[in-house]
Amino acid sequence: MPDSPAVPTRSRARRVLVVVAIVLASVLISAVAVRAGFWQLGRHEARASAIALFEENAHLAPVAASEAASDGSLADDEWRQITATGTFDTASLTLLRNRPIDRERVYQLLVWLDTDDGRSLLVNLGYLPVPGPTEDLAAPVLPDGAVTVTAVARAFEADDGRRDSGATRIVPTQVPAPAGDPYDAYAVLREACADDGCVDHYGAGPVPLPELSLGPHLAYTWQWFAFAVIAPVGGVLLARREWTLSGDGAPGDAAPRVRRVPRRRSGPSDEEIEDAL
Fold this sequence. Notes:
Blueprint: H1 12-57, E1 63-64, H2 65-68, E2 81-96, E3 106-115, E4 119-129, E5 147-155, E6 181-194, E7 197-199, H3 217-245, H4 270-276
Parallel strand pairs: 1-2, 4-6
Antiparallel strand pairs: 2-3, 2-5, 3-4, 5-6, 6-7
Helix pairs in contact: 1-3
């Protein structure tokens, strides 16, 4: 049987190119994993800071907004209950869209409170269910006179740049301009007291505060960092295997076939003896 032709090995330049490509790909994957790990670590640290701030401020006694912002910033007192007295700028009432509550489609209500200290505080008054196609929105009736609100201070959200009807983020740039210098945080209403009594919201219900938890970000961080270590190790092993298999004498090359030589018989067979007789 004729020998099978040997499979030609790769040239040295091509072998080097393939190995370098494998190593670079593994390094790139490792770099992406490291970046993703640090991003998850940043999310974890941000949540941990928010929880620490909540635990520090949420159980403090209410403080006047002007007193809490005496150092120039109300955002440092996030999650603390604040009080303020003033009048609602009813013309600034704005619907906050795309914020469901308990999976119900609702509009949250934002309005400026022009406080007695000459500044304006953006207040989240509560929420209203989104009306059906044949229904009208039942806008709340706000008091015309002075009102004293007790609310939870919250930091403004990042502006997403949208300027549609209503607002999609709680930020001053998405509501009408206030009459006074705005505080650098908004407030989630917990109680509003006017001459005719006190309410805890204007609308169908008060807006609940978010539930804070660390989430799985720290676990994801370690997973990404572990992957960042595994990727280059795997790349080196794969490159080494590729270099070995594509070289001279590699298992991938066809080895010369060994021709089998028929075994020589030690003597005549029985048939040959019978024929001879």
